[in-house]
Amino acid sequence: MDPWTDLMDRAAARHGIVTYTELVAAGRSPQQIVHWCRTGFLVTVQRGVYRMGGAPDSLLARVSGAVLCFDGDAWASHHTASDVFALGVSRRDARIQVVREVALSAQRTGIQVHRSTLLPAHHLTTHQGIPITSPARTIFDLARTTGPHRLDQAIARATQRRLCTVAEIHRVLFDLGGRGRPGTRRLRSVLERWDAHEPATESELDQVGRALLQRVPGIEWQVPIADEQGHIRTVDGLIRATATVLEFDGAVFHDPPRAAELDVDQDRRLTALGYAVRRFRWHDLTRRDDLTLAEVHHLAAVPLARPA
């Protein structure tokens, strides 16, 4: 595929947005780019970022252009992300909102740049060709300035349309909530009515548990353990210093009689090896998260560090 055709394909996926660097790489001269801007073949969106003249001036095009002017180091966020995901939380300020790492520049005309100290991969995604914060991270970011009722509605829209799960929101909350972020208390309160919605998969429960306990030192995750009979099971977490096994149990997978019998048998074998087994349910990770965190710190024989 020739460079120009390749660029046009990428522009189509990005709602008609191209950059100066891409145009030059595709063989167009600076003089030709200036001429195209004068004749309307290109419309300047930001310095060095253009919309193809035939592409509509849509929200998605404006968001795509705002993100692209940061050379791959920004993601649509906050109310802008809410508009893209149709979560129903908008604002009067028409500026596009993006988030970048805290060390990066925050100046662009017509763009509100938020800076974050924590942008892990599971907080970020691509939606309709636009780099953007995940729905779960978006909901967390909205909690700072959004009332409980509208925040609850945003969660309802996101979960009903399967944009994210309640477990994913809890995971982001535990990633960021202990860092003094505004809106944490409000989001915790709103999530209380959703806590009956236990995760549909054990992997989600495991992710929430890991997020809650991520700052407890000395925990190894997904550790296989065996005895003379062979493999017992791969435990969710292991604190070797105190020989403590941590398990995150979902009702769907551990409450049926056969599964419960298997758990008892495996726990007996683990106990014979000298391990203590501590099991946590969904409500332990969500409604009792402070107590659970304190307990695991104690199990790890590490003093509980409290946020400043």
From TrEMBL:
InterPro entries in UniProt: AbiEi_N (IPR025159)
Chain ranges of the AbiEi antitoxin N-terminal domain: 7-51
Protein name: Type IV toxin-antitoxin system AbiEi family antitoxin domain-containing protein
Native organism: Iamia majanohamensis
